[in-house]
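Today's session is about reading a structure prediction critically. Students often jump straight to the picture, but the first step is always the sequence itself: look for stretches that repeat, for charged clusters, for runs of hydrophobic residues. Only then move on to the predicted structure, which in these notes is written as discrete structure tokens rather than atom positions. Here is the chain we will use throughout the hour.
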Amino acid sequence: MNTVLITGCSSGYGLETALRFHAQGWSVIATMRRPREGLLPASERMRMLALDVTAPESIAAALEAAGRIDVLVNNAGIGLAGAFEATPMALVRKVFDANTFGVMAMTQAVIPQMRARGSGVIVNVTSSATLAPMPLVAAYTASKQAIEGFSGSLAHELGAFGVRVKLVEPGYAPTTRFAQNTDVPVADLIPEAYAAYAGPVFEGFANPALTTREADVAEAVWRAATDATDRLRYPAGPDAVALAGAA
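Below is the predicted structure for this chain, in token form.
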């Protein structure tokens, strides 16, 4: 039986992805910083582990408890929206620590077992913000764009050992609590000088015709994890698919 370890499963994409793999008969290790009972179905094929991707000791403990991992899904991350001028650099570093260095650390930790077996898949969840320039998400986009380049290069590097690397690029989904994992509300990152500009931008983000559902992302992760080809990118959601087609 194949085993998938998914980071950031407390809500949104990660939670839905855990349910998707479980429904397909996989053994699922759903990780989050603070596991809570009742979040996922009781099953011999569903385990919850505590994991903070920004803490090396937490990564080591989780991987030791997990054992064999056939697919790693790096989903955990932090959203950030606002004027870059008003964004404290400490907050930018926090976003990079989770979205960029956390992904790299998890990937580096799981590579040895996959390389030794000559098989495995690493799926990195980024964003449609990497597909076209978008306003008011400069730092967030940079943190995700770094993983795009990282994954493309790593796909070549690990392909020689039978390990595949994939990118899933979700569109905008307000229901995933995009910026609620940060310490600073979005409103605090929109100075008065930006208010007239920011209003229409956020209204555009909220267009229901372009809203990505959690199920869209879970399906894209499933396809990426089970696709034996060398395809790298899997846009998820109507806006991401449209942007990928226009690129």
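Discussion point for the tutorial: The beta strands are 3-6, 27-32, 46-50, 71-74, 120-125, 163-170, 233-236.
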